[in-house]
Amino acid sequence: MSNQERSEVRAFISAALEKRGDTKSFSDNESLFLSGRLDSFNMVNLVMFLEKTYGINFDSIDFEVDIVDTIEMVMTLIASR
Amino acid sequence: MPATENDWLRRTLAIETRASWISFVQTPFGQLTIGALALLATHDYFGLWEATVAVVAALAAGATMLHTPKLHVLILFTATWGSVLAGTALGSLDTADRLADLLQHMNRSANEAALLSTIGVALVLPLSLLLFSMVRRTPHSLLARRPFLSLLLFEIALCLVSYILQANGMEVAAIVGWLTVFVFTPYLWFLPYAVIDLRARGDSMPLAQLAVQRPFWSPTYVPFGKGLAFLRKHRATDAEALAVTQLKGLKLLLWANVLNALRELLELIPVPVLGEAIDAFLSGHPVSIVVGWSALVVSTARFCLQVAIWAHLFIGVARLAGYRLPRGSWRPLESRTLMDYFNRFHYYFKEILVDFFFTPTFFRVFKRHPKLRMFFATFIAAGVGNALWHFLRDVHLIATLGPTQAIRTFESYLFYCMILATGIGLSQLRLSLDIRPTDCWSGRLRSFFVVWSFIVILHVFSDGSRTHGLNDRISFLGSLFGVN
Asked: What pTM did the predictor assign?
């Protein structure tokens, strides 16, 4: 997986956090949704971003918020597409 | 309140951040004190024996959570099934009442209703184990892949068979069928979480899954704490976290009592309840417009407080058991949009709508049309899911009123769901277009006014009574705007 993809995902998440007034830094292993920093609306937007940008097909995935809860998990998902 | 004063109050109340309190809670005397205060805070709502069982079980579960997990599960299991069986036998849960209504409707003695209902609830245990076993043996079956849909189809089929038996005069068989429906209905909202978790984690203990089916802290139709997977993620991981969680739980229980005092103060306001105001309007002697609006606002406030009080009591007890669960209702007055309100007002109810309706719809329908996809999935959750949950909660009315009348008396709530869902869907769409309320004080005031005007007006249609039809409520609402 490329650093560019990681940067794009980080930029997307950063923008979502900023819109919620959350400017604290976050690591690649930090929980984003289960911790409550982002909500279900942000999750839906992230899913649409991943579908559109990386062609991930969620039809074949049992979706649970766990699979996109950290940057690292999102990167694993992108790598497995 | 000025910000500094507000901060001072917050700091004073933040006992869970003080080392002395955290240490105290970990002592036997600290646990006794928490238990006594929790019992005082809950017995008026749960009843004395139910509150005692809940508080003692929660503290015992908390005490065993970190070092003896098997004993922890055993305590949860015993408390959950002990309280649901005793509650059914003694009539504090609704299954026996529903069966009694049906038996009386059939002109039969209702003396055995509690016993039959308790036997029915007890049978949920082996049947759930059978279900878990089926899921493990056939992980690719419809039941394992789409548990909610499968169980919903099962519920609908049960209702149909029971109704056909009843309509054809086969009363004993119909009674057995309806009893199965009454017993099964609450578990429809719990079992799918267990199935999903069992499929994801083969090592999940069936006993642990059973222990949180209508857990002892909230024997209702809404899974406060969702399923075992969610609870697992939110369990305290060390002694200090456990003490902090228990202090937060106690605070929530005490806060529920403050809200209840507020609710009782509202009772002192000399305005009729909403149903009485509608009755007065329908009888041709309407209350004045000011009194009508006051009745509507006070009724909405009481309803919102009631939801928050019960949510805080349930989550408070769950926190005593060591689960760091998010609150069930979190500052709904600060909602900036309808979507925000939906998220804050009744979190765990929203979660079942998201998990069982929004997510499956969102991942399957209108994938090439992002805005329509978002709106439609939101509408299915907040509208269809919401209506279905409330209709099934009162499923016994199909047996006693008949299907036509059960649906007819539900039309007002159905209307409420459709309008609410449209509002939330549009709110979601506006957010996706980046149209957000401004953060200044006037923006916050406008958000408050817009969100709560919508909720108050819509409350005309969601008010619990099934005695007023949709047209009556529309006419009453019109009268509040001076339209006759």
From this structure: 0.92
d(CA B259, CA A25): 37
One-letter amino acid for residue B139 of the chain:
P
Q: Say whether residue B438 is in contact with chain A using an 8 A CB cutoff.
A: no
Q: CB distance B363–A41 less than 8 Å?
A: no
Cβ of residue B338 closer than 8 Å to a chain A Cβ: no
Whether B431 has its CB under 8 Å from any CB of chain A: the answer is yes
**How confident is the model over B322-349, as a mean pLDDT?**
93
Is A36–B359 a contact, with Cβ atoms under 8 angstroms apart? no
CA B333, A34, B22, B34 torsion-angle sign = positive
Partner-chain contact A63 B431, CB within 8 Å: no
- Count, residues in chain A: 81
CA distances to B176, B178, B190, B222 from B120, in Å: 9, 11, 17, 20
Using CA atoms, how far apart are residues B297 and B311, in angstroms rounded to an integer? 21
**Alpha-carbon gap: B187 to the closest alpha carbon of chain A (Å):** 21
Q: Do B359 and A34 touch (CB under 8 A)?
A: no
Inform me whether the pLDDT recorded for B1 exceeds 50: no
Contact between chains at B432 and A34 (C-beta distance less than 8 A): no
User: What value of ipTM does the predicted structure carry?
Assistant: 0.76
Distance from the Cα of A42 to chain B's closest Cα (Å) equals: 9
* Nearest CB to A63; choose among B339, B363, B432: B363
Contact with chain A for residue B374, Cβ under 8 A:
yes
Q: Is the pLDDT of residue B368 over 90?
A: no
> Which tens digit of pLDDT belongs to each residue from B70-103?
999 999 999 999 999 999 999 888 999 999 999 9
Contact between residue A54 and residue A78 where contact means Cβ atoms under 8 Å apart: yes
Chain A to chain B Cβ contacts (< 8 Å): 29
The span from the CA of A80 to the CA of A1, in Å, is 10
Q: Which residue of B has its CA nearest to A45?
A: B432
The residue type of B202 is: G
CA distance B368 to B358: 17
Q: Tell me whether residues A51 and B343 touch, CB distance under 8 A.
A: no
Q: What are residue B100's phi and psi, to 5 degrees?
A: -60, -45
Give the mean pLDDT of B105-129: 95
Helices H / strands E in chain B, number of each: 26, 0
| B181-199 residue pLDDT tens | 999 999 999 999 999 888 8
- Give the SS3 label for residue B121: helix
Q: What is the mean pLDDT of chain B?
A: 93
Q: At what angle do helices B147-167 and B191-200 cross, to 10 degrees?
A: 140
Return the pLDDT at B2: 52
pLDDT at B5: 63
pLDDT tens-digit map of B377-410 = 999 999 999 999 999 999 999 999 999 999 999 9
Test B374 with A36 for CB contact under 8 angstroms.
Answer: no
